[in-house]
Specification:
259 residues, alpha/beta, Rossmann fold, Hypothetical Protein, Haloacid Dehalogenase-like Hydrolase, Chain: A, domain 2, 2 domains, 8-stranded mixed sheet, 6-stranded mixed sheet, 9 helices
Length: 259
């Protein structure tokens, strides 16, 4: 068991290039890792329904989604960390006063609290997924939500950070911010999987490029930042590989000795 490794990959800007395409060398590398007996997993801010096709294409059944709030091990739900709904209700009221829409997200779907808004269209379209939030302002009631999206300009989230300290706010687009339970992260989700599998830390690897990968790349011993990552992301990683556009996954796996 000690020879088996677990490798976690972010999706956007890591597995997928900026056109949301999976490079052929990345796909070949993933299947080589699996062939060698390693566990390949995904660690993403996306909802499970936003990368189902990718999981099927790569035959991956273990993942950390919603930045650590919904964790699945070999097809079974291992860990859930939902948002505090009463606090979210207060945030919704404040957001409506500023014309800032909110999208509610559980493990199956996402719904918006407004019929339409250009910020929602602009940001969700960049993901190039087959899902778009329809209107249901009461979707948050009576169900577990693992993430919400707040749509506002850069800097406008500061007012919410001050007012709602039970949430973390992570910007992923110029007009959109993730709302997460305080302290939730990909790192926490990876920790849950590692504990269940009893995998030692030296056998855990993680690849990422975004601001929501910083805690993951800081906590995982064998961390690899993509060449297309911001400097603040590269600075916390043990290794820096080439850009996703330049076979970065394949090159990075060679760097750490897995290929």
């Amino acid at each position: 068991m000690t020879k088996q490794k677990v490798i976690f990959f972010d999706i956007d800007g890591t597995l997928l290039n900026h056109d949301k395409e999976l490079p052929s060398t990345t796909k070949e590398a993933i299947f080589k890792l699996k062939e060698d007996g390693h566990i390949v997993a995904i660690a993403t801010g996306r909802a499970p329904f936003m990368f189902e096709d990718l999981r099927q294409e790569l035959d991956i059944h273990t993942y950390v989604s919603y930045n650590g709030q919904y964790v699945v091990l070999d097809g079974e739900v291992l860990y859930k960390n939902p948002l505090n709904i009463p606090s979210l209700e207060n945030l919704i009221e404040a957001a409506l006063d500023h014309n800032h829409p909110v999208v509610f997200m559980d493990h199956e779907d996402m719904k918006a609290n407004v019929p339409e808004h250009p910020y929602i269209t602009e940001s969700i379209d960049t993901l190039k997924v087959n899902h778009f939030p329809t209107h249901d302002p009461s979707y948050y009631k009576g169900r577990d939500l693992y993430q919400s999206l707040l749509f506002c300009q850069v800097g406008e989230e500061k007012q919410y950070e001050k007012a709602f300290d039970e949430f973390d706010f992570i910007r992923w687009h110029p007009v959109s911010v993730d709302i997460l339970p305080k302290g939730g992260s990909k790192a926490k989700g990876i920790e849950k999987i590692a504990q269940r599998l009893e995998i030692p830390e030296e056998n855990i690897y993680a690849f990422g490029d975004g601001l929501n990968d910083i805690e993951m790349l800081t906590s995982v011993k064998n961390s690899v930042a993509m060449g297309n990552a911001e400097d603040k992301v590269k600075n916390v990683a043990k290794f820096v590989t080439k850009s996703v556009e330049d076979n970065g996954i394949f090159h990075g796996l060679q760097m750490v000795g897995l290929l």
